[in-house]
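name: query_chain
kind: protein
chains: 1
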Amino acid sequence: MHETAYEITTLTHQQPTPNPGMLPTEIPPGVQMVTLPGGIRTLAYTPQQAPPAPPVPVAQPIPAWAKTTALLTPTIGGGIAAAGVGLSYAAPGLIAMSEALWAAVALIAAAAIGVPILLRIGRSAAGGGAGRGATHITQNITASGMFGKATGTINHR
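structure:
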């Protein structure tokens, strides 16, 4: 037999390799397929990475219009409330005033209709029914120039 410089032995310790027929759904949770620096692919437990922390909210300054609105809101609400209270106290007076205004309207309407009727009745009574006609007055006015003195005559018939 020949003597050789090297000796062939069987390997008793092998790196675990996945079964070539293993499906990704068969791999248990927390275990992943990794490639080692020597090129051997194997299953290994991998540490879970913590999810990134949510971003910290930055405080935003309050806009000037929001501050102004917030300050005006109670003022406007108070004004509306005061107006409501004032109207509730003024309601009886407003009702009486509206009745007085309707009475004034009725008086004006009666005067507009009644005064001409009374004048006609007075003229016919003063004439005595003698057939006297109405009096006509004619006035003639004359003026010379734009700023001249005006003169006139009045004629009764």
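note: Residues 4-15 have pLDDT under 50 and may be disordered.
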